Amino acid sequence: xxQDGLLSPTAQAQLKEIEQADLLVxxxxxxxxRTIGHVVRAAGVGLAKYFPQVRAVIVNSDGGSTDGxxxxxAQAALDDLQAVLVRHPVTQAHRIVTPYxxxxxxxxxxxxxxxxAEALGVKACCVVDSDLRSITxxxxxxxxRPVWEGEADYVTPLYSRHKFDGTITNSIxxxxxxxxxxxxxxxxxxxxxxxxxxxxxxYLEKPVWETDVARFGVDIWMTITxxxxxxxxxxxxxxxxxxxAKDPGADLSAMMVQVVGSLFELMETYAEVxxxxxxxxxxxxxxxxxxxxxxxxxxxVDRMLAIFRQGVRDLDPIxxxxxxxxxxxxxxxxAAEPRESFRFPDLLWVRTIYGFALAHHRRLxxxxxLLKSLTPLYLGRTAGFFxxxxxxxxxxxxxxxxxxxxxxxxxxxxxxxxxxxxP
Length: 423
What we know:
8 strands, Spore Coat Polysaccharide Biosynthesis Protein SpsA, Chain A, 2 domains, eight-stranded mixed beta sheet
C-alpha cells in the first residue's frame, strides 16, 4: 500500500484499528508545543459541531519535535463535545500522532497525511498549520464542507490580512498564478487547505517526494497541481490568520528560492496548460466575509531601499544576463531616485519577473543564484509599493494589487512568445 513506507509501525497499527474514516484533519508540526494544543482542540470541536455523526481522524505528522509537541497533541483535552451539539450524538475523532519519514520538511509531513487519507478511504481532508492562534472550529467546516458536499476538490484559504502583510503573495505568487492558469486564487500559499481523497491520492502519485517539494514549496505545488490538472477549486473565507508577523525587509532569500523557485519549476511542468490561457476568471468563495481587527506590521522601508540600491551596484553582472537592456536600464535609473519620489512601476516589475522566469527556463544561471539575486529587486518593488500605499486604506491597496495582476495578464503574450523561442 502507498502508506507502508511512510508510517511508523505504531501508526500502521492504528490504521488497522481505525479501518475507515470519512474526514481527516492533518496538522504538520515541528516544535509547536506552545500552540498546537489550541489547534487540536479547535479541530476536534469543529468536527464534532459540524460533522457530528461522521467518522473522522485528526493526524499530527511531526518532524521530530524536541519540545514535547506530539505529547501535547496526544493529551490535548477536548471540551465537552456533547455540549457543542445538544440534540445529536457526537462521534469523537480518532487521533494519530506519527513522525513522518523522508526528507525533512513540510512536504514530507503532508505526504504522510496523504498516505493516511488514502489508507482510510477518506472523502474530504484538510490541513491546518500548527502555530495558528486565530483558528476556530468554523475553519474546519469551511475547509471541509465544499469537498464533503461535492462542490470542490480543492479549497484554498482567503484571509483578511494587514495591507503590508503577504508581500511575496501580493507581488509575485498571486498575480503570476492568476495570469498563468486563469483562476483568481487570492492566497495560493496560505498554508491551510481542504482537498478530496481523490486529489490526495493524485498527489501521492507524483514523483516529487525526493525533490525540493518535500522540503519546501509544497503549498504552491498543491495549488498549481490542482489548477493545472482540472480539479475544481474554491476559496474559503477564514477571517484573520494571526501568526508571528515578519518584517518584509528581513532576509527573504530562502523563501524566494523556495516559493518562487517552485513556481518557476511548475511553469516547466505545465507549460502546455498555461500557454493558451488568455484571461482569468473569479473563483467561488465559501463563508461569510466580515471585517476583523488585524495585528500591526512593522516595516523598514529604508532598509529595503538600501538593499535594493546595493543590489544595483553589486549584481550588474548577473542582472544583465537575466533582464532585457531597457528593463535593466530603467532599474538603474530607479536606484537613483530619492525616497520621497521612489516608486517601482507595475510594468517594470512584471517585465522583471517574466525576465527571471525566462532565465530560469533557459538555465542561464545556477537556480539558487538566480533566485537569490531576485531578492533586492523584490525589496525595491515592496518599498515602492509601501511608499505609494502608506496612507491608503485596505480597499485601495487591494485595487492596486488587482491592477498589478491585470498587468501580468496583459504582458503574458510576450512571455509565451519568448518562452517558445529556442534559448
